[in-house]
Structure formats: C-alpha cells, structure tokens
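Retro notes, item 3 of 5
We never archived the inputs for the 2-acetamido-2-deoxy-beta-D-glucopyranose complex last cycle. Fixing that now. Sequence and ligand:
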Amino acid sequence: MLCLSFLTVFLIATKAQLYYDELKVIINMHVLLLKEPREGESAPDPYIKELAAHGHKATLIPVLSFKFVSLNTLSNKLFQPEKCGGLVFTSPRAVEAVKKCLEAEERSEEWNNSVRSKWNAKSIYVVGKATAALVQSLGLNTFGEDTGTAEILSRVIIERENTNSQPLFFPCGSLKREVLPKALRENGVPLETLTVYQTAEHPDLEKNLKNYFKEQGAPASIAFFSPSGVKFCLEVVQRLSGEELRQIKFAAIGPTTQDAMIAEGVCVSCTAEKPSAEHLAAAIAKALQETPAGHSA
Ligand SMILES: *[C@@H]1O[C@H](CO)[C@@H](O)[C@H](O)[C@H]1NC(C)=O
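Structure as it came back at the time:
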C-alpha cells in the first residue's frame, strides 16, 4: 500500500514536471461511458483500452437492452436476394440479427454456397468499421465503411443508386433515426426497412448509475454514445452529480449525439472526430488536460 502510494506520488510528480509549463496534471481520471459492451467480443472493450492508454480509468454502464424480432421475415428476405437491389446496415446489432438467421447448419451452407455471392453482385452499404467488420464476417463485401454517419452514407447511396432500381433492404432497430430513410425517400431511391431488434432502456440503468456514483463519486468525464443515452441518462446523471456537475466534461461520440446533448442544454466539451475508440479517447484526454490541476479525480 505504502509502496503503491509512493509510486503514485512519484508518477504524479513526474507527470507534474512534464506538464509543469502548462500547470496541468493528467493522470488517472475517471471516465463514465454510457454504452453497451460490444456485441460478441470477449476482449476488453476498445474504449476502455484506449482511455487506459491515455491514463484514465473508464467504466461502462449499458443504457439499452435489446430483443430480436421478426427473424422469420428477415430470413425470408435474406434468402431471396433477387428481390432486392442491395443491403444497408447501420448498426452491429442488425448484423447480429442476420447472424442469428444463419445459425442453422443447412441455412449457413446455402448461404455460403449460393446466396452470399448473389448479394455480393449487388451493393452492400455499411456505416462505420464495427458494422463493416461484422458484415464481412458473413462473407459479404461492404461499401461505405468510412462514411461514419447515416447522413454521409445516404449521400453516397443516392449518388450510386438509380431511382428505378429494386429497393435496398434495410434491417434496423426500433429506435433508428429517420435520417437515412428520409434522405433516400426524398431522392426517390427505393428502400424497404424491417425492424429486426427492439430497443428499450436497460432495466438496471438507474441502479447501476447510483452504484457508480456511490462507489466512485462524480467522474471527470461522461461520454454519451446515442441520443437515447441522453434521453435515458441525462437527468439521473445531473441529479447524482449535484454540485460537481459543472466540473464534468461531457463528451459525444458524434454529431448526432452532440446535437441531442445540446438540445438538452448540456455544455459539450468534446466530440469525437470519428466514431471510434481512438478518436473519442483522444478527444476526452484533450478535454481533461484542459482541466486545471487539482480537479483530477
Ligand atoms: C460458412 O462460411 C463461414 C465463413 O465465411 C463459416 O464460418 C461457416 O462455418 C460456413 N458454414 C458452413 C455450413 O459451411
């Protein structure tokens, strides 16, 4: 214990010296990430890892819980590629629903032997790298993984698709934002959506937040990952933070979430340049450096 605190003092002293010019101390602040752990990954969450690399201790609290629905309809669609012009995926969870449809051995075989190559002859649009990686694991070629937002992806789709082609098929969640369907509709690009998972507030959300604040106190930074995260957590977080609310650096994973935060009157300290663990961790680390010494947790 003594050794540890000695080491800590030494580290702080070293860091303090390093940052002496700016009179800033950046070490081991607490960051609260209001997100679900990444689906189907046993490795440590990339956001926790990236923040640890910047010297911060991050904790995840899941905001949402998910339930798959209409998997039979989804399966029928997936095995009739001739009826669609292509596919659109904007969330890893929608791809998980597809995976569920391919779990049975004979379906998987049929998919591998003939169906996926028929899809690969069409366009398969994805937003973001996490979704792209999952879609690729189904043996599909993806397009648009660098777009990052539904808005930019819509523009790419509109540029590439004909108004008189077969509809693109878009499996999505119940909380999908209307950006992509609306943009495509307005430009006459046919799209067929199917809700394949329903999203609801996580049943333990408030309890988990209370425990976190009780055990760790108010974090130095809180990151939101979706407008529904803002909707379900903001009020509780504000209540639990009390006096310390003003010192908390609020971070957003992207412009959509940032807008939802601003609409609720939150002062947003930083927004990730791209929706990735590296970009968010870098943005948070920078915002926390701007905290005057003495406010570190
Ligand atoms: C189909 O291909 C995937 C890899 O793309 C593989 O993991 C899976 O086992 C294959 N399914 C069958 C039934 O061969």
